[in-house]
């Protein structure tokens, strides 16, 4: 009994101490916080006056050079908010989408919006795919915690792309620093394909049984902003490393089993066609056990970077897609 009373007292004293220090910390700052926050918020809120269709236009017309959220307007007048990277290689990059794997063991289950949420289904070869429609989902601030797609994906006419791999659930103001890999293209390849991924995937449909492995879409050279060819190679499994060449972004890869994937991030398939272990997104039908937003990144040793499986870093990072 005495022991229990003593214990209770100790806990009481500890709790007192904790709440006291918490309290003093809270009391010292709020005025200052409130004041600086208000000015800051007013400045951010003032951005809603900008009229622009892309982050590049905001940079060019309003000389904004700060990364963050801005308002954009589509050709039809739809207003939406997204993240602008105003610093990388001159800035003006619009975040249009993110591909996030919420359940690597879930094979085309809930959350697999960039492949199929309707199960692995031979009767849905493209699953009415989100790679080539005007459906939108998610939020910019949530882009590392779930899939994101905004109207810029189909509305913006761009020339180049940038890609960030950001660890899941990281908050927006730390994306740039936290990213394990960042790169961009600089040869204006999107001009050849209608100016965005919506148009590019019209040329190269992401659907089951569209052709053999050799019928893949373009492989575009990249410039690294964080990481390099060697770190890119190491993010994927030992065996895929022999089948791709790092330093590229590739569109609409096809594997041995005739499933189409949307993007091979950082690499170009050159042999073997086992692209389900290192390319993301896809249609509605894969060989059993491959279907998913990160199709078969977990094949033989989840997150170990051994065998065919991608590293933990890669498997647990969202892929953010930007246009400029
Ligand atoms: C508010 O914080 C800034 C630095 O963060 C400091 O320079 C300033 O003196 C503070 N103002 C008040 C009223 O505490
Ligand atoms: C926001 O815009 C208003 C009206 O143009 C202006 O008076 C105000 O100074 C702006 N606020 C900030 C923090 O820039
Ligand atoms: C496309 O996204 C929508 C919205 O999240 C989702 O309901 C639908 O299932 C997705 N399409 C596929 C094929 O997963
Ligand atoms: Ca999944
Ligand atoms: Ca997903």
TrEMBL record:
<keyword id="KW-0430">Lectin</keyword>
<dbReference type="InterPro" id="IPR002181">
    <property type="entry name" value="Fibrinogen_a/b/g_C_dom"/>
</dbReference>
<dbReference type="GO" id="GO:0070492">
    <property type="term" value="F:oligosaccharide binding"/>
</dbReference>
<feature type="domain" description="Fibrinogen C-terminal">
    <location>
        <begin position="46"/>
        <end position="96"/>
    </location>
</feature>
<dbReference type="InterPro" id="IPR036056">
    <property type="entry name" value="Fibrinogen-like_C"/>
</dbReference>
<dbReference type="GO" id="GO:0046872">
    <property type="term" value="F:metal ion binding"/>
</dbReference>
<dbReference type="GO" id="GO:0005615">
    <property type="term" value="C:extracellular space"/>
</dbReference>
<keyword id="KW-0732">Signal</keyword>
<keyword id="KW-0106">Calcium</keyword>
<protein>
    <recommendedName>
        <fullName>Fibrinogen C-terminal domain-containing protein</fullName>
    </recommendedName>
</protein>
<keyword id="KW-0479">Metal-binding</keyword>
<dbReference type="InterPro" id="IPR014716">
    <property type="entry name" value="Fibrinogen_a/b/g_C_1"/>
</dbReference>
<feature type="signal peptide">
    <location>
        <begin position="1"/>
        <end position="23"/>
    </location>
</feature>
<keyword id="KW-1015">Disulfide bond</keyword>
């Amino acid at each position: 009994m005495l022991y229990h009373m003593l214990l209770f007292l100790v806990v009481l004293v500890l709790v007192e101490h904790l709440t006291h220090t918490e309290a003093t910390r809270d009391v010292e700052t709020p005025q200052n916080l409130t004041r600086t926050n208000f000015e800051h918020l007013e400045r951010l809120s003032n951005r809603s006056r900008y009229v622009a269709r892309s982050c590049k236009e905001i940079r060019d017309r309003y000389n904004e050079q700060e990364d963050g959220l801005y308002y954009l307007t589509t050709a039809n007048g739809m207003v939406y908010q997204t993240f602008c990277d105003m610093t990388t290689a001159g800035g003006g990059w619009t975040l249009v989408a993110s591909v996030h794997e919420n359940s690597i063991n879930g094979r085309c289950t809930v959350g697999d919006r960039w492949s199929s949420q309707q199960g692995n289904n031979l009767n849905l070869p493209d699953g009415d795919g989100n790679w080539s429609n005007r459906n939108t989902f998610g939020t910019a601030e949530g882009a590392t915690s779930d899939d994101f797609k905004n109207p810029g994906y189909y509305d913006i006419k761009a020339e180049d792309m940038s890609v960030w791999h950001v660890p899941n659930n990281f908050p927006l103001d730390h994306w740039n620093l936290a990213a394990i890999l960042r790169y961009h293209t600089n040869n204006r390849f999107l001009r050849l394909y209608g100016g965005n991924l919506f148009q590019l995937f019209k040329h190269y449909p992401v659907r089951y049984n569209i052709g053999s492995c050799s019928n893949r879409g373009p492989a575009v050279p990249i410039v690294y902003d964080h990481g390099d060819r060697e770190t890119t190679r190491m993010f994927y499994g030992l065996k895929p490393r022999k089948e791709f060449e790092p330093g590229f972004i590739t569109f609409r890869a096809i594997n041995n089993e005739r499933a189409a994937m949307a993007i091979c991030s950082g690499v170009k398939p050159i042999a073997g066609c086992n692209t389900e272990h290192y390319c993301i997104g896809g249609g509605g039908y894969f060989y059993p056990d491959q279907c998913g937003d990160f199709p078969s990144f977990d094949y033989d040793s989840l997150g170990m970077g051994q065998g065919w499986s991608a590293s933990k870093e890669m498997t647990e990072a969202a892929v953010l897609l930007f246009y400029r």
